[in-house]
Amino acid sequence: MTEILLGAAFVVLLSVLAGLWRVLRGPRRADRLMAAQLLCTGGIAALLLVAGAYGDGAILDVALLLALLGAFTSVAFVMAARLVGPR
């Protein structure tokens, strides 16, 4: 069962790599933010799968922290966009 969960985590991380291209080459700032949110969500999913494979509670804490940082990133982006204006 551990191998299946780790394999699924690897597949999730591979699919998130496609979003990394959009973060680096996004035509607009909003595209880059949404891709960064995809990276955050994929990272959380991979961490949860790894935590399930190893039964480690500390990895769950890291996944929760990553979810919190992802939410704060979105709020900071919206606040900065209001100050700077549309682009």
From TrEMBL:
<keyword id="KW-0813">Transport</keyword>
<feature type="transmembrane region" description="Helical">
    <location>
        <begin position="6"/>
        <end position="24"/>
    </location>
</feature>
<comment type="similarity">
    <text>Belongs to the CPA3 antiporters (TC 2.A.63) subunit F family.</text>
</comment>
<feature type="transmembrane region" description="Helical">
    <location>
        <begin position="36"/>
        <end position="54"/>
    </location>
</feature>
<keyword id="KW-0472">Membrane</keyword>
<keyword id="KW-1133">Transmembrane helix</keyword>
<keyword id="KW-0812">Transmembrane</keyword>
<dbReference type="InterPro" id="IPR007208">
    <property type="entry name" value="MrpF/PhaF-like"/>
</dbReference>
<dbReference type="GO" id="GO:0005886">
    <property type="term" value="C:plasma membrane"/>
</dbReference>
<feature type="transmembrane region" description="Helical">
    <location>
        <begin position="60"/>
        <end position="84"/>
    </location>
</feature>
<keyword id="KW-1003">Cell membrane</keyword>
<protein>
    <submittedName>
        <fullName>Multiple resistance and pH regulation protein F</fullName>
    </submittedName>
</protein>
<dbReference type="GO" id="GO:0015385">
    <property type="term" value="F:sodium:proton antiporter activity"/>
</dbReference>
<dbReference type="Pfam" id="PF04066">
    <property type="entry name" value="MrpF_PhaF"/>
</dbReference>
